[in-house]
Amino acid sequence: MVKLASRMEKIPPYLFARIDKKKEEAKKKGVDLIDLSIGDPDIPTPSHIVEKMKEAVSDEKNHRYPSYEGMREFREAVAEWFKKRFGLELDPEKEILTLIGSKDGISHIPLAYVEDGDPVLVPSPGYPVYRIMTLLSGGLPYVMPLKEENDFLPKIEDIPSSVAKKSKLMFLNYPNNPTAQHAPDDFFEKVVDFAKKNEIVICHDAAYSEIYFDDFRPKSILEYDRKKEVSIEFHSLSKTYCMTGWRIGFAVGNREVISALARLKTNIDSGVFQAIQVAGREALLGDQKCVDEIREIYRRRRDLIFEGLKSLGFQLRKPLVTFYLWVKVPPGFNSESFCEYLIEKAGIVVTPGSGFGEEGEGYFRISLTTSEERIKESLERLRSLAL
Ligand SMILES: *Cc1c(COP(=O)(O)O)cnc(C)c1O
User: Fold this and answer.
1) For the whole model, what pTM was predicted?
2) Residue 161 Cα, ligand 1 centroid: separation in angstroms?
3) What is the CATH topology of the domain spanning 7-44+289-385?
4) 111 Cα: distance to centroid of ligand 1 (angstroms)
5) Which of 10, 228, 279, 298 would staple 135 via disulfide (CB 3.0–4.6 Å)?
6) Is the CB of 177 under 6 A from ligand 1?
7) According to the model, what pLDDT value does residue 17 have?
C-alpha cells in the first residue's frame, strides 16, 4: 500500500464509531430505534424553493460553470436579506462570497491564514471541523472551554496574552452547536474588542442564526463590528430552509478575508451549481412564512422534550436557539457509556457530548429532528427505564 501523508494522522479516529456499531447491532436485532442524534432537518425544503429549482434546472444558462464568487443575483439577494434581518449594508461585490454550504468556508479559512505552529482559538465542545482543519493546516488548536458555569461562553480573559498575540484566527459559533446556547450582547462586544487588540480574525459560524424561539433573535457579529474590521461570518441555507443536501451558504464580512478565501477557493472548487443559487435567491427573498412554520415545529418539539426530560429528573437548560438540547448524563455514567446504555436498553440514539471535544464529556446532545409522535414514544421509553 502507498503510505498516506503524515498529515492524515492528524485526523482523529471517528468518534462515533462505537455508537454506530451499537446502532447497527440493535437494528440487526430488529429494534425499533428512535434516532435523536441527527443534526439534519427531517422537514422537507419548502415547496416554492423546490419549484424554483425545477425551473432553473431546465434553463441551459445554468448548465455551465458558475462564477467563482457566486452569481451577482445571489449575492444581491444575500445583501437584501442581511439588511432586512440585521439592518446592515453589505457590498455584494466585496463583502459577500457564495459557499458550497458554510462548511466549505469554515474548513478552508485556516488554509488561508495558518502557518505551521500557529495557535488557532477553537471552542470545545464544538463543531469538529474547526479543530481538525486547524490541525491539517499545520496549526495548533488552542482550546477555549465552554463551561456551563460560564453559560457555555469562552472566557476571553483566560486566554494568555502570549497565545492571543500569536493567534490569527478565532472560531466562534452562536447560536451554538452542541450546547444550544445563545450569545448575549456584551459577549460579542468583548470578543470584537479582544480581536481588534490582538489582530485576530473572528470566524463566526452562524449556521443556526434563524433557528430561534420565544422572543429571542440572534445577532450577527457584524452588528458589533460595523466597520467589518476583524470579522467574517459564515451563514447557511441548510438549517434555515431545510436545505442541507443542496449545499449552499455564504460568508460575509471583512473584505480582505473574503477576498483571501475567494482566491483560495478558485483553486479548490468551481462554485455552486447556478440552479441552486437561483433557488437560494428564492429562499432568501421569497415568503419567510415557511421559516416561521419550521421554527414552530421545533419549538413544539423542544417544549415536549424539555418538559419530559425535566420531569424525569434530567438536568438541562431550555434553549432559545438551535434544534438541539444539551443534557447532563445521569450519575454513574459518562457520555459514551450512557449513549450505549440508551441504545441497548431503550432503543434511543443520542449523541455523546465527548464527540465534540473533551469538554463535552458528561453531556449528551438530543436533536429535535424527529416527529412529536416519536419524541413522545422516546419519553415513554425513558420513563420505563426508571433511571
Ligand atoms: C450544520 C452545521 C454547519 C454546516 O452547515 P452547511 O452550511 O450545511 O455546510 C456549520 N456549522 C455548524 C455548527 C453546523 O451544525
Assistant:
1) 0.97
2) 30
3) Aspartate Aminotransferase, domain 1 (3.90.1150)
4) 19
5) 10
6) yes
7) 81
